[in-house]
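Pasting two entries for a bug report.
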Amino acid sequence: MKIVVIGSGTAGSNFALFMRKLDRKAEITVIGKEPTMQYSPCALPHVISGTIEKPEDVIVFPNEFYEKQKITLMLNTEAKAIDRERKVVITDKGEVPYDKLVLAVGSRAFIPPIKGVENEGVFTLKSLNDVRRIKAYIAERKPKKAVVIGAGLIGLEGAEAFAKLGMEVLVVELMERLMPTMLDRDTAKLVQEEMEKHGVSFRFGVGVSEIIGSPVRAVKIGDEEVEADLVLVATGVRANVDLAKNAGLEVNRGIVVNEHLQTSDPDIYAIGDCAEVIDAVTGERTLSQLGTTAVRMAKVAAEHIAGKDASFRPVFNTAITELFGLEIGTFGITEERAKRAGIEIVVGKFKGSTKPEYYPGGKPITVKVIFRKSDRKLVGAQIVGGERVWGRVMTLSALAQKGATVEDVVYLETAYAPPVSPTIDPISVAAEMALRRFR
């Protein structure tokens, strides 16, 4: 069987390795635009800050590792078209035949139509090449004032990196708060306050209308001109769908797939940032552009191609980050998005400590849990705290994936030791707050 993968990122690389484990004889070929296989895009801001020393350090495995697995690599190669009738991929280096084709074509940074966005000193943060360009620019021009356009995960992590390098940082966001798709106003405020303590300032409800100078020397926010000698555009990403669309596959915001990750052509699969899947709360189609999702998709697609009855579950989009030592974990629907979707919810919120009050060294933690009123099920959570957020948000996400109710979380069996956690965990206390509001 000839299996061709278009895309050498997280989804494509992991698929090739999973597929090789399941089928030792299949001919597996990976076509990728970049010169390397999988690296971690989530690590890129930490390369800029210097926490990770070199861009090359985020490459997961060298190309030779895949070649030893008898995976054929066609890197620095662009897939131009898919001929579904002949079952070939047309590239800039010739045609590649397939029996099964996997589209792992990822996403691209969205560049808004801002005057001057192409000027020198204006960057996106999506690839290793972006990081190399940013680091070279910083080394050469030693910028002192950075403006970040967009207050999502990448924008905030970029802002942190610039601040750690000693820059004065301003984040500009069109919405009224940071991380607007992941946090509600109350939890977003906690993150904002912590970042402001570290010198990052914010402007909400406005956009950058112009970037002035090349190299950049200022940005225009409304009628105000603000000094800047480096600009990061972090206004989200868009799924790469053109290849699929031109091949006649069904496409919305992403490439439409079924529960087995097959496209409208059953011999073609789509995985990773480009694939449109099902939201676990609303039941609507959504994008899940997370590295963890990409790996799970890769596994399901490989197993299904290998003949197993594997299905990809609807997503809660569980995510976590850390900014200046503050951990932020989230999944599922927010309070505000639930209202827009017409979903009645009950919310519980608790602010406490990561350790018993009598034990020194505890750090503040805020837990917000969201339950659907109709069936009492857990459908979302936001946790902001100084430590151990990861374990708590993972626990709640796992419970939600299993259909847990408010009572399940209230009476959850947890672990306790004074140096580690309180006797009643904050997630159970937050759920208790919600339980009291049910009628």
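Entry 2 (this is the one that rendered wrong in the viewer):
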Amino acid sequence: MKLNYRRTVLIGLAFLSISGFWQIYDSIIPLMLQNTFHLGETLTGTLMAMDNVLAIFLLPLFGLLSDKADTRIGKRMPFIVGGTLFAVTFLMILPIADSEENLILFLVIMFALLLSMGLYRSPAVALMPDLTPNRLRSKANAIINLMGAVGGVYALLMIKFLVGPGKRPDYFPLFVSIGGLMFVAVAVLFFAIREKKVAALVEAEVEAYEAESGEIIDAAVGETKEDVAKEAMPKDVKRSMVFLLASIFLWFAAYNAVTTAFSRYTGVVWNMEGGGFADCLMVATVAAILSYIPIGSIASRIGRKKTIMGGIVVMSACYFAAIFAGTYHPAINIAFALIGIGWAAINVNSYPMIVEMSRGNDIGKSTGTYYTFSMAAQIFTPILSGFLLESISYRTLFPYAFLFSAAAFLTMMQVRHGDSKPVKKKAALENFDLDD
């Protein structure tokens, strides 16, 4: 049975819109909070952590509600369409509140915007497995992630070309470009993918294939009931799990500190103006995309743990080198390309290690724990790094990232399980299969 690429690309439009939004949110909102409303680093970091705090509660809630929904246009589509319309509306108000220097309106709209995004992220991600047979979801998820990367690159290009010089440029054209992307992407999704009709079509395709081949295509693969029976996780495996989760927290703390504060750091330390900082982030994103396939090949040869540790070493070295960069130089783009490659090496292999250690136990619970630790880091790090930026110096950013990344290397050294060498993918595209 073959994947329907056209249908999967269309489904990925929802994740494209989400990724485009979060790219400008993380880059531009801190600049507004500081340059317009003159908030300190600590308070700015605290406000920037709110999306992750809300996500811990909103993502499972709206995912569950969409599971139980049954409307004329489907289970997921009401949340996707409604959430997008609300989000685009509030997104257009945000730069108006910024231009009028109305802090109360800005914060109220920002909170409403985060609620709107929380409304449809889980349903948007769930749409792909709803409309894709089980055994094709790995390849489909690769396409979804690539669509998300396209959304992120688009947002960075818009930042580069639409954000003018000065501390308080007019952000309205940028927000219109992102709102337009979100609206058009989800409108095309809605009219091209009739959720109930496609779900029935997929079910018919699966039944026809099973009748012709005698193969059960939409069932769990490779394990019997005895294999997945719940049993206590051995102590040595549990120890590895704890150290791996600690590593996840630490490398997310390092990376998120840089991505959240970088737009401000470049203005204060490197005296960059406008959207020029987006070049570095775009280089990192593109390098990560291009490195997924080689990293998958490397991990199949040397194992997941060594690949992850190599990624940590590369990222730590780049963070350390950035400490000594007093001004912007084009060579910095090389460092950010390496950071993107290192980050891809970590993300491609860390979640499969969690799954590997969870075999025979509650894999779903362990997956939830993975996201809990990554989100907890993204709540914690903007606050602590923001406090250091404000109370000591902006130059603490890269030492902060280096120390947390180096700590992740030390904890990762203690991980002894989950390192089975992955089977090489049959299709190159499957190397893009990452967690969302």
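Dev reply: Rendering is fixed now. As a check, the viewer should reflect this: Residues 219-229 have pLDDT under 50 and may be disordered.
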